[in-house]
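Hi R.,

As promised on Friday, here is the backbone we talked about, encoded as structure tokens. Could you run it through your design pipeline when you get a chance and send me back a sequence?
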């Protein structure tokens, strides 16, 4: 969905001189440097100069492929997200969704990326390029949940008329709302209550939950 990092024009001398292999190796070094700096800061102290220095290249190389520091950081997070998308297939829609929710919520607790990702989401509201990268960042996880739900329909766990896109939005809607506002927990209890709320007809054997209780208790002020 998103656009890949901009590569040098294939007819330019730089492209002909370095070749594709060297360019990809340099791109990998830049993304690794960005991730390493995210692991030791909250994103605010990172600059294009610091990424370039850590990668051992000139900052003009970064600007050749990315328009801003934010684009580099989001692309680095996107690159890692591609490698970490959970795609369970246990034969149980509840178990699969719970594994995805737990993984997503746990990832949001990582101090190495959470503050930077929040900042990048805010910047994406003003930067169309970042907004496009952010859509790609979320697309793979949305697709994984769609696959889980569609397999459940095929197995007969969910009715054929299930609104798959709406369930995906509900699952990730709660995640992004709590992740961005930080007003309530993203933990295993929340993941369990969320999945059981999304799939009440399926979970007839689950442990009974007090229906009078708030399924998503808040912390702090609303």
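Update: got your reply. Pasting your designed sequence below so it's all in one thread:
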């Amino acid at each position: 969905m998103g656009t890949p990092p901009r590569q040098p024009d294939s007819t330019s001398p730089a492209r002909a001189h370095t070749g594709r292999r060297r360019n990809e190796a340099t791109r990998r070094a830049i993304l690794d440097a960005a991730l390493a700096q995210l692991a030791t800061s909250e994103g605010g102290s990172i600059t294009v100069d610091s990424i370039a220095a850590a990668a051992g290249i000139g900052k003009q190389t970064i600007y050749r492929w990315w328009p801003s520091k934010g684009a580099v950081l989001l692309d680095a997070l996107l690159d890692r997200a591609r490698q970490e998308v959970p795609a369970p297939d246990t034969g149980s829609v509840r178990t699969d969704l719970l594994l995805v929710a737990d993984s997503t919520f746990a990832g949001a607790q990582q101090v190495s990326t959470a503050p930077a990702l929040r900042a990048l989401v805010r910047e994406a509201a003003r930067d169309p390029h970042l907004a496009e990268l952010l859509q790609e960042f979320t697309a793979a996880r949305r697709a994984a949940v769609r696959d889980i739900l569609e397999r459940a329909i095929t197995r007969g766990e969910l009715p054929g008329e299930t609104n798959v896109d709406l369930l995906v939005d509900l699952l990730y809607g709660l995640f992004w709302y709590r992740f961005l506002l930080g007003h309530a927990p993203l933990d295993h209890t929340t993941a369990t209550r969320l999945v059981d709320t999304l799939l009440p007809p399926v979970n007839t054997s689950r442990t009974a939950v007090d229906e009078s209780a708030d399924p998503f208790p808040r912390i702090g002020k609303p």
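One thing I noticed while checking it: The mean pLDDT is 79.

Thanks again,
M.
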